[in-house]
Amino acid sequence: MGFRVCVNSINNFIKKPDDIPFSISTWEKFKYLISGVIYDFIIAFIFVILISILEPLMTPYENVLNSKLYSFWMSILLITILPPLLEEFIFRFPLKYERNYIFRFIAYLFKTDFSGFWKKHLRVIVYLFSATFGFIHLSNYNNVDVVFFMLAPIIVGAQLFAGIIFSFFRLKLGFVWALFGHFSHNFILIMMSFLFFHNVEQNLVDDDNVKIEATGIAFKVDKQERLNIDSLQDGNILCLDAQNYSLQKLIDELYLADTLKIRDNDQLNLKLFSKKEEGYSKNQLLEVLKEHYTFKKVTDSISKNE
C-alpha cells in the first residue's frame, strides 16, 4: 500500500466521511499516518504560497503566537503536546457517537436515541467540527478587520485541511492515531522552525559600503542580551553588534519608538561593519531592515540622533 492509495482513501473520506474503521494492521495504519501527514503538509505549502502572494494584504495581521519566545523544550510542551491533547479531545474524540457524552446526555434527557441522526448527518458533523477547529485559530490574531475575515479561509486554510485529515485518522484508524497525527504535525513545525530559522545566518548586505549579518533566534536561549554601537558625531554607524537582542528594542534604540513597530517579535544577532570612514547612516540601515522584516507601521521617521 503506497502513498497514492492512502491519499485516494483520504480523498474519498473527504468527499463522504464515514465512521467505519479500517480493519488493517498497525503497520498499515502507520503508513496511513505518514501519508496523511505528508498530504497535510503538501496542502499547507500551497496555502503558504497563496499567503505569500497576498503578502501586501497580510502585512497588518500579526499572529500573537509569534510574539512569544520559548525555549526549544518548552515549545515542544506548549505546541507539540498540550494543544493536540486538548484540541483532539474537543474536536475529534466526540466524532464517534458512542464517545460523544454530551450529545448522549442530551439524548438521555429527552428519552430518545440520536445515533441514527448522527450517522445520517455524519458528513455535515465532520465538516462542522473541522471548520470550527480551523477557524478557531483566527483567535491567534488580534488586529482584525473586514479584509481579514474575507481572507480567513486562506489564513487558516492549512488548519481547515488538517482538521479533515485528523478526522480521518480518528474515524478510520482510531482516536490514538488522531493524536499521533496532530503530535507529528506540530512537532514537524517545531523542527522546521529550528532548522530554518534558529541560528541561521543571513547576509543582509555585503557591498563596498557595509556588511550586515543577521542570525535568527527562533527559541529562547540562556544568553544575556548585548548591544554595542560605535557611532560618529553625525549619528552614522561605524560598527554595531547586537547579541540575543529584540529587533523591536533595537529599533527603539535607534529611531522614534512610536512610529516604527515590528510586526513579529524577531529575536536576533545583528552585526554591522561600515567599510567607509563616514560610516553607515541609520536611514540606510532602516531601509535594509524594511527589506527583510515586516513592520506594522512605517513612516518617514527621524533618528533620535539626527
TrEMBL record:
GO terms for molecular function: peptidase activity. Keywords: Hydrolase, Membrane, Protease, Transmembrane, Transmembrane helix. The chain crosses the membrane at residues 32-54, 69-86, 124-141, 147-169, 176-197. One of its GO terms (biological process) is proteolysis. This is CAAX protease self-immunity. It comes from Leeuwenhoekiella marinoflava DSM 3653. The lineage of its organism: Bacteria, Pseudomonadati, Bacteroidota, Flavobacteriia, Flavobacteriales.
